[in-house]
Batch of 4 targets.
Target 1
Amino acid sequence: MTITKEKLHKQIDEFPDEISIDEVIERLIMIEKLEIRKKESKDNDTISEEELKNEMEKWFK
């Protein structure tokens, strides 16, 4: 997944005046994940709540 310079500039403008490199990286990763999820949602590439519940039940068995 890639991000446009325009979106990146907007995000950087919202960063606090002082921020660590680690925080920048974490925020950029989060932005990327959100962009991926928005695209999946737009493309109807999601699972239902019921499917999610079934999957989660498997995790805790």
Target 2
Amino acid sequence: MKLQGPVELAARALLGQRLVREGVTLRITEVEAYGGPEDSASHARHGRTGRNAPMWGPPGRAYLYFCYGMHWMLNVVTGPEGEPSAVLIRGAEVLEGVETVLARRRAAQATAQLCAGPGKVAQALGLDGTFGGHDLLAPGGLELRAGPPPARLLAGPRLGIAFATPGDQARPWRFADADSRAVLQRKALHPG
């Protein structure tokens, strides 16, 4: 799997890959790409901080941040070391460990939307800030494993970035598996 390179290509390559932790396996169905300081929607836009330091690499590391004081968000670092970029994991399907996911999410039943949303993905995997900088390509802990890519892709603008410039708001850097139901706000996406 190719993680290093232009962030939008790395984002597409992450669709269909597996995230594995403690008996839970998720298949990635929706992602968003975030570039470096030139991307006004990126956490790297203000330079390197203690919070976003994992974005500076190396590729294949986890970057987690706490959003709205409620949810951890998992990103996969994709830029070469020293050049920040990351891909937010927006949605996934549960392949293994559904009972564990239900317990972690405090959900009554498994639905197609069980892990549709970045906060739900991190919750399903039992993640928190201690996974910041974790090597996703090494065995143990949280692992990113190869999986078959989707047959059809959707693309469209990223969500929740009203603070970004109009050009960055319109950038079609949200990608999804066209055949998955674990995708949010599908109407804003188009074949891509």
Target 3
Amino acid sequence: MSAIDGNGLEGVSATTLWTLHNRASEAKRSDGVIRDPWAVTLFDTISYDYLKFGKPNQSHGLRAVAFDAAARDYLTTHPKAAVVALAEGLQTSFWRLDREGVLGESRWYSIDLPPVMELRRRLLPRDDRIVELAQSALDTSWMDRVDSTHGAFITAEGLLMYLDPDGAIGLIRECAARFPGGRMMFDSIPRWFSRRTLKGFKLSDRYVTPPMPLGQSADEALGLAGRIPGVAAARDVAYPSGRGLFKAWPGLDHVGPIRRARPSITLLEFR
């Protein structure tokens, strides 16, 4: 496959190359936390100055493993459920889960802005189970396309922190109302990191991350179960154990200041 220029992605859309850099770099390691052949293919095919994102780390690989596990759990009991990947970027979760045999009867709805969807069409294989919707996750007309007769698992991996708080809460509220019995999973950054991005957070001397207005602790995310109608329960999902500091991290969660200052993953269950 000939090289594809990735410089057409800008702003928040370009962050999918940041997460791809981390995930594919992990997948290339013999001791990597994730096995992701399609991430490696994308990384090797898209021509881009990945080093401006700084040294790769395990964070996005571990996040992807956590999302896969929750999706796999839901699909095991809802084998015909719809999976909705909001702002999917260059995630390759579909192929990882399909390799595990849990997507045989499911329909996968891939949602992102047109430039990202165009890259996906050019670089990833076609599959009749995938419905591609080139639009913003906040344009909730996508909900009309989703057949949730047999349940729905909605992912917002690396999305909500880039939204303003009202927009993020509104999206969750809409999902809870439209997909009863479904689940929604998202990750959050802590407030201190959100404030840092608003001032301009540099990954290197050549790259400043887009602002991330929504910051919340794990416990604040759990509190959504009492704030949003239709959300029956919320669960804090632990990051899997990795190497080095990423191995010790889960064991320190009982320390209040660390719990409040760490990123989190939350799984919501809808009534």
Target 4
Amino acid sequence: MRVSRVQASENRQAVIETASRLFREHGFDGIGLKGLMEAAGLTQGAFYKQFTSKEDLIAQASERALESATQQWAAAAAAKPMDSLGGVIAFYLSTDHQYEKMDGCPVVALGSDAARQGTTVKASFEAGIKTYLDILERMISDGGHEKSEGKAMAILSIMVGAMTLARAVNDQTLAQSFFDSAIEQVQKIAAS
């Protein structure tokens, strides 16, 4: 049975969305095409009508995951309009985010996987990371672009590092200590 263009487009978006979540949970190599397509409610054969390769899907799913994360940052900032950076920090460096892998930060979940991918996947991550940095820069802008840019890079590095370490340990007290230390350092950087 032939699929309409509208249905084909909807199927493609469903696969990208499903992959963006499952890749964050399992890693790029932790789930095969068959499992991805089944989770999206399609057959493996439909994959080849929608994507040129698994790398093509990985790049598009990564882009979608980073867009989703950016929307989460915007919601966290909007929840604390008088302290948008505080809102993002509270959301990002939280136990809820620590355990929410499917919808959590793709840089934490997939950063090391992305480092082993080709230029297309890295380009998706680079664009998303630059968006994170732009958001942080706007939140801490003090009139000096170079100073704000450096602060934003330090803040993002601390946040990603703390979340990565928190997810890597069993001891929740240690994980919370990573969050608490990161929050303290981020606040110092933002205030300097």
